[in-house]
Amino acid sequence: MVVHASNAGYTSDNTIGVLASGGLDSCILIGDLLRQGRRVLPFYIRTGLVWQAEELPALARFLAAIATNQLAKLVVLDLPLVDLYEGHWSLTGHGTPSADSPDEAVFLPGRNALLIVKAAVWCQLHAVGELALAPLGTSPFDDASAAFLHDFQAAINRGCAHQVRLTLPFGAMNKQQVMILGHGLPLELTFSCISPIDHLHCGRCNKCAERQAAFRGANIQEKTVYANV
Length: 229
Known about the structure:
By secondary structure, the protein is an alpha/beta fold. Helices cover 34% and strands 10% of the residues. The chain has 7 helices and 5 strands, in the order βαβαβααβαβαα. It has helices at 24-35, 52-66, 89-92, 111-125, 146-157, 175-181, 206-217; strands at 15-19, 39-46, 75-78, 130-132, 165-167. The protein has a 5-stranded parallel β-sheet. Helix 1 packs across helix 6. The longest helix is centred in the N-terminal third of the chain and has 15 residues, at 52-66. The radius of gyration is 17 Å and the shape is globular. The relative contact order is 0.18. Residues 1-8 have low confidence and may be disordered.
């Protein structure tokens, strides 16, 4: 499922890149863009965080399930963070924010900037004119805001022959509105857990609690299997 730079043939007119995590929001974004008739190029940035061993295969399964001629092959780029996040819970698995922790507890310093720059430079090198991200309007993180993206876009486009736009298609929406867009998609194939157990969602971490609340709030039957209920 990996596309290397020399294999890609994309133009800014027919392709939108999507920074995908394998979670609900980015997977719904991919499905919604396909429904709109866009050609979608998904990106996954492999950084070495503890949940990515389950997250990447889940994303691959989701993409296979919704594949159309308009869905390009997944581009996987590597950005190891072991030297930067040394000792952090996201690498060690110790002290993972629990289900009753605030959203701010899962903040990863510089994460969006690091992920965006890798995918955005790829887009510039291949004349892909737009890179979409899935943060919602309710995100508590400043580096997921429209203002941040505006400034970051200006910085990364300076001196580049091919410009890339950074967009937030869900930037004015809440979780329930996004989940409604997910109706009919195989959402059970998505992966949201930050502390997986035996390839399953743990059912006890901050992101599992968020996932459960998302299904309840949208009145969608959840098919996720949790290690702990």
